[in-house]
Amino acid sequence: MDTEPALFSILRQGQVLVASVHTALDDSQLLRLQRDLVGRVGTDRARGIIIDVAALDVLDSFGSKTLRDIAEIARLRGALTVIVGIQPDVAQAMVELGIGTGAVATALDLEEGMAHLAAALGPAWTP
């Protein structure tokens, strides 16, 4: 039996996939998150993705690039992505180091991320 805590979870809420990162991920774990999440876009017919990084106290350049890659791959598959929960210290460090999220939308929390997707996807969107 696997007793290790989950590093991340992906839940479906209507047409949205909510990926919550529970702890710091190494590069191979970030790539697994990417593979799993992008795969679920097609199988769950998702129109939106929210990636919750509130549990992270650091986000390096590889992590930031991986999040941008997830968003771009998802966009090419028909889903919009919003990153939520970036902690103030993490945001400040990212700015100081010149690491950003590119064109990927960000929001304060899950509620604001859902509101952003609702506005972006329009009346055809169902939560």
TrEMBL record:
Residues 6-117 form the STAS domain. It holds the Pfam family STAS. Gene3D superfamilies: STAS domain (3.30.750.24). SUPFAM superfamilies: SpoIIaa-like (SSF52091). PANTHER family: RSBT ANTAGONIST PROTEIN RSBS, RSBT ANTAGONIST PROTEIN RSBS-RELATED. This is RsbT antagonist protein RsbS.
